[in-house]
Amino acid sequence: MVFDRRMVLAALAVLPAFSMARADDSADAVAAVKQFQDGQLGIIQKLGQMNVKQRYDALRPAIGATFDLPGMARMVYGAGWDALTEAQRSEWAESLADYIAASYAAHLEGFNGKGFERDDKTVARGGDLVVTSRIVLDKGPPMAVDYVARKTPTGWKIGDILAEGSISELAQWRRALRGLSQDGFAASLKALRERTQNYLTP
Questions:
Q1: Domain boundaries, position 61
Q2: What is the tens place of the pLDDT at every residue in 39-76?
Q3: What is each CA distance from 102 to 69, 88, 119, 167, in whole angstroms?
Q4: Band of the pLDDT at 93, cuts 50, 70, 90?
Q5: CA dihedral 72, 75, 76, 79 (to 10 degrees)
Q6: Per-residue pLDDT tens over the stretch 115-126
Q7: Which residues are 150's β-sheet partners?
Q8: Within 10 A of 124 (CB to CB), how many other CB atoms are there?
Q9: DSSP 68-137
Q10: Closest residue by Cα to residue 31 from 65, 60, 55
């Protein structure tokens, strides 16, 4: 094969731009994880002073800002998602965010962690980026928790969380909410909101 010198130089010129884009992607993915973890950290530092509704109110904005809610809602809702209107998809995704925030708020009760550690670099996995981090516990070694970040029209967002590096929280939410969509959009939305309220009711 004969190489054209101009073609080689043009190819080499592209490499720095590609590397820079990947570095920017990595930084944006890590920033999304940091924002979510900072939201949790603010609660952890005042855990004994906050009830479950206050924890929910403090955490919900961070989830709305950093999670790939449309993508997660599609996975959790399952069959029938494509038949929904854009308004219905948006409403269900926001209600899913409410549910996730309420779940976190409830499960933070008795939490024995005191902070987070994060790696500044990500690991590519298909088209996703994995942010490796650890929960620093009051006692014992840190617990691994990785974040799968996905590129969305609004930037890099968290698409899944892997407890201990492999236990998918998205899969657990899918199991917990399985079957809601079988009775149609209105019934599934009502049931989802009821489950959210159950977490928030003392």
A1: 5-200
A2: 999 899 888 899 999 999 999 999 999 999 999 999 99
A3: 15, 21, 27, 20
A4: very high
A5: 150
A6: 999 998 899 998
A7: 157
A8: 11
A9: -HHHHHHHHH-TTGGGS-HHHHHHHHHHHHHHHHHHHHHHTTT--EEEEEEEEEEEEETTEEEEEEEEEE
A10: 65
End-to-end CA distance of the chain: 73
Q: How far apart are CA 70 and CA 72, in angstroms?
A: 6
Q: Into how many domains does the chain fold?
A: 1
**CA distance linking residue 92 with residue 189, whole number of Å:** 6
- DSSP letters, 24-73, are HHHHHHHHHHHHHHHHHHHHHTTGGG--HHHHHHHHHHHHHHHB-HHHHH
What residues does 103 pair with on adjacent strands?
none
Domain of 121: which CATH number? 3.10.450.710
Q: Name the amino acid, one letter, at 85.
A: T
- Structure-token pair, residue 70: 């449309």
**0.70 exceeded by pTM:** yes
Rounded to whole angstroms, the Cα distance separating 102 from 56 reads 5
- Side chain identity at 141, as an amino acid letter? P
